[in-house]
Amino acid sequence: MKARFDIFRKKPGRRGESRQIFELEVAPGEVVLDAFHRIQEQIDPTFAYRYSCRGAICGSCGVRINGEAALACRTQVAPLAEEGVVVVDPLANMAVVKDLVCDFSPFWDAYNRVRPFLERREERHDEKLTWDDKMTPAQLDQLTRCVDCIKCAACFSDCPKREKDRDFIGPAACVELYRFFFDPRDGGREKRVETARSPGGIFACENHANCVKVCPKDVRPLRAITFMKKSVSSENDS
Ligand code: SF4
Ligand code: SF4
Ligand code: FES
Predict the structure, then answer these.
(1) What is the pLDDT of residues 181-214, one digit of tens each?
(2) Which CATH number fits domain 105-237: 3.10.340.11, 3.30.160.100, 1.20.1560.10, 1.10.1060.10?
(3) pLDDT at position 17, please?
(4) Which atom of ligand 3 is nearest to the CA of 59?
């Protein structure tokens, strides 16, 4: 079938941006990323986009398709093309470097604010797990969903709160904060609570749930945020 794409274009270092229409023949099962490859190989070699794994693992091919963030490697073209023109834009809430390529610095800056690593209570030279380090199935269950995050920034792009409040760390960083807050091996709880309560921390979230809708890995950031809000608030009360 024929598919029509309306794609955002921008040259690096230049102010102006434009849109370009591409028409392609697509086979059943082809994804938007396949179309990008075809456009670059056959029509315009200057067309820029990001990808690596082609299998919804690396998190680099996020774009906005018909106004919603999604992975290009996981979004089939045919059902969209049947409805009309497929409109593709770069992720939002980040500056565009070229065409569909964004500068992820604000995403990683927010992410780094939550100290995304395990803080040990004491210096450990032998990192072999001991019985003390083992987690119960219930503790592990609490973390399972959030460790699926592939840092694609789809949630960050479509979070309305982040759009109006550049201090808000955004859904993915909140998930990471939750991930270490509920890890019984972590020794940095005080600092994590401080980050959660700080301006731009989890309490800045306004419960729009866009993050849940667009997340390609079903991480459900709002669920993690809600859990953590309750937990941090009860620590406050006690
Ligand atoms: S629920 Fe919170 S984090 Fe998710 S999109 Fe809304 S404001 Fe952003
Ligand atoms: S929470 Fe989901 S949408 Fe957000 S970065 Fe992780 S995988 Fe992507
Ligand atoms: S190419 Fe890796 S997630 Fe799409």
Answers:
(1) 999 888 899 999 999 999 999 999 999 899 999 9
(2) 1.10.1060.10
(3) 94
(4) 3
- Give the fold, CATH level 3, of 2-102: Ubiquitin-like (UB roll) (3.10.20)
Atom of ligand 1 nearest to the CA of 210: 5
Report whether residue 71 contacts ligand 3, using a CB cutoff of 6 Å: yes
- pLDDT for 126: 65
Atom number of ligand 3 nearest to Cα 56:
3
| Domains in the chain: boundaries | 2-102, 105-237
Atom 5 of ligand 2, nearest CA residue: 151
| pLDDT tens digits, 72-108 | 999 999 999 999 999 999 999 999 999 999 999 999 9
In this predicted structure, what is the pLDDT of residue 190? 93
78, 232, 220, 85: which is closest to 154 by C-alpha? 220
Pocket flag, ligand 1, residue 207 (CB < 6 Å): yes
How many angstroms separate the alpha carbon of residue 29 from the centre of ligand 3?
A: 16
